[in-house]
Specification:
Chain lengths: 393, 255
């Protein structure tokens, strides 16, 4: 089985570029050039140097002793929460801003839900001195005020998405419309492994630094590159794609993708796309998405804004359908408890997205000798308000 | 022969009108179509509403949201249109996004269109290569014309390719933008209209996006076979309901 994108932009039956003709020149330019640009020595040099000096890579692979004892298995945390700006998102925005510069684009647009990708995009635009416009659903602007302020401080313009349900999927629609309206000078920095080909592959490649580091770090610590399990949460799927990337062909490594069940998979308030979704087209990609039987895209729910997306990237749809990865759904309550547990056990406050991945240790049993790597995608600072309200702190 | 091809052979310039099915109220569809034909419109694009219309501006987005809230679905639309050919003879095209059609089943969808007497489809997010590889055979089996778009950014090479595979008209998007009304076209548009006209393509071109009044209609049809009005008509519907459709059309066609 091939888990990498094929020459037509598909992962198995998922992917492609279902875009209006208006976007064709931009997406086609990117498709023809992205691999070549990424492989240029000057690109790699600049990318690696920024990841090291600016983002703070490599991020530690930390052996979580007390969590391991509690779960009776061997757990390593890949500390993406220690990246500059607080999550893995910046790995991708660094890569894409360098791509945009080489494509001669001087205006950057992005969508954001929780604001993490918006902040990561505003950050690299400040770094490079490029204009930055971030689309964000009107409802998300209200519930993620600190990240809106961060983006503004970084010099970005935050534009409210007023259409549809006024959340992440609509912010994505608005960003795509902006790109249609500004086809010449603008690059769209998508925040996850979603959208038309080549975005899912390009973003996965930029995030693949996560599993690249895991391999040599694990070799140092365990004497072997491959763990028994890799666990990551999935919103659109970028941190999971990065954590799985170099293990996709290592069939002995079991991959666990964790989705947000919200109030429960069958509650009507959920974001568990692999269970509730079926095949369709969202944001230019053929993948699994949550929709009505008439093909209208529905609004998901999760306490975690970063997992609140009605689709998954086409790679994940393929990993799910081919059973290469096991998909597990975790409710709000399970995630919040697991997040709090990590604070008490390891002194690490995780992002609520990452807390979903952590909750797997309460619902699945691992063997004592198993080596489990969990991708801790982000830190919980942005979620303090939610934690405070939830636990009445 | 398909009604679209017959229409394209008439010597006059063509006016095509888009509206969103299920807007302003669920059951307006048939009466809007009949009134448009009576008012002298040459061709109609019936919009199948979608929750996430990527290529549309605020006016058509809002009408789509209302239509969906009113209860419009693919099956409801087909049901409303089942007797449309008893009263209407101009070409009818369904314009919509690919996902709702996919969920209905592409073959089923095309079959239903043929039964009703739909002549063609415009699907902005179904790319040319996917159509050619996977759906062309089905569309042709049911006698449906698929209409492709070109934009000011489309390369000459790609325009020639699209011309070759078009068996109806080419939908020429007037400017780099989503749908919406403009009051006039500038020099850039004129240049583009001229450039395409000079290519002497085999498929006639009909210009859409930004046509809103007699002035923009005339400017567009100076170079192209026809023009399509969408947002401006949807605005008219939201202000007047199905009343005075004839006034809207005659204001465009007046010379
Ligand atoms: C910390 C963190 N983890 C995970 C996600 C989910 O995105 P993805 O599935 O693309 O990694 C987000 C998105 O905002 C995030 O901020």
């Amino acid at each position: 089985m091939n888990y990498f994108v094929d020459e037509n932009g598909y992962y198995g039956e998922f992917g492609g570029a279902y875009i209006p003709e208006m976007l064709y020149p931009n997406v086609e330019e990117l498709r023809l050039k992205y691999v070549q640009i990424m492989q240029e020595p000057s690109f790699q040099k600049e990318f690696q140097s920024l990841l090291k000096e600016y983002v703070g890579r490599p991020t530690p692979l930390y052996f979580a002793k007390r969590l391991s004892e509690k779960s009776n298995t061997k757990i390593y945390l890949k500390r993406e929460d220690l990246c500059h700006t607080g999550a893995h998102k910046v790995n991708n925005t660094i890569g894409q801003i360098l791509m945009a510069k080489r494509l001669g684009k001087n205006r950057i647009i992005a969508e954001t839900g929780a604001g993490q990708h918006g902040v990561a995009t505003a950050t690299v635009c400040a770094l490079m001195g490029l204009e930055c416009i971030v689309y964000m659903g009107e409802i998300d602007i209200a519930r993620q005020a600190p990240n809106v302020a961060r983006m503004k401080m970084l010099g970005a313009t935050v534009v409210p998405a007023l259409s549809g349900s006024r959340t992440l999927k609509d912010a994505t629609n608005e960003a795509i419309r902006d790109w249609i309206n500004n086809p010449v000078d603008t690059h769209y920095i998508i925040g996850s492994v979603v959208g038309p080909h080549p975005y899912p592959d390009m973003v996965a490649r930029f995030q693949s630094v996560i599993s690249e580091e895991m391999k040599w770090q694990l070799k140092e610590k365990e004497g072997k590159e491959n763990p028994d399990y890799v666990i990551a949460c999935v919103g659109g799927g970028s941190n999971a794609a990065g954590a799985f990337y170099h293990y996709l062909d290592e069939e002995s490594v079991q991959l666990i993708a964790v989705e947000a069940a919200g109030l429960g998979v069958n509650s009507g308030e959920s974001a568990a796309t692999s269970v509730l979704g079926n095949e369709g087209i969202i944001h230019g990609s053929k993948t699994l998405l949550m929709q009505t039987k008439d093909g209208q895209i529905t609004e998901p729910y999760s306490i975690s804004a970063g997992l609140d997306y009605p689709g998954v990237g086409p790679l994940h749809a393929h990993l799910c359908k081919s059973k290469r990865a096991e998909f597990i759904s975790i409710t709000d309550a399970e995630a919040m408890q697991a997040g709090l547990d990590l604070c008490k056990l390891e002194g690490i406050i995780p992002a609520i997205e990452s807390s979903h991945a952590l909750a797997v240790f309460n619902s699945k049993t691992f063997k004592e000798n198993d080596v489990v790597v969990l991708n801790l995608s982000g830190r919980g600072d942005k979620d303090l308000d939610t934690y405070i309200k939830y636990f009445k702190l | 022969m398909n009604r679209i091809n017959n229409k394209l052979q008439e010597s006059k310039k063509l006016l095509s009108i888009y509206f969103t099915a299920g807007f302003p109220t669920l059951t307006d569809t048939v009466s809007i179509i009949e009134k448009l034909e009576k008012s002298g419109v040459d061709m109609i694009e019936i919009g199948l509403p979608f929750s996430d219309p990527l290529a549309d501006g605020p006016t058509i987005q809002a009408s789509s949201t209302t239509a969906l809230n009113n209860g419009m679905t693919t099956s409801v639309l087909f049901d409303q249109l089942k007797d449309i050919r008893k009263t209407v003879s101009i070409p009818l095209i369904i314009m919509g996004y690919f996902n709702p059609m996919m969920q209905y089943g592409i073959e089923e969808f095309c079959k239903k269109c043929a039964e009703i007497g739909i002549d063609g489809l415009i699907i902005p997010d179904l790319p040319v290569n996917e159509y050619n590889d996977n759906f062309k055979v089905i569309f042709e089996k049911y006698g449906l014309i698929n209409v492709f778009l070109i934009t000011p950014q489309t390369s000459d090479e790609r325009i020639k390719f699209i011309d070759e595979i078009s068996n109806g008209f080419i939908y020429m998007v007037s400017s780099a933008s989503v749908t919406g009304s403009k009051n006039s076209f500038g020099a850039v548009q004129n240049e583009y209209f001229k450039r395409i006209s000079a290519m002497n393509l085999k498929a006639p071109q009909i210009i859409g996006f930004g046509i809103s009044n007699a002035a923009t209609f005339q400017q567009a049809t100076k170079f192209a076979k026809g023009a399509i009005i969408g947002s401006a008509f949807v605005n008219h519907l939201s202000q007047n309901g199905v009343n005075s459709i004839d006034k809207f059309v005659s204001a465009i066609l007046k010379d």
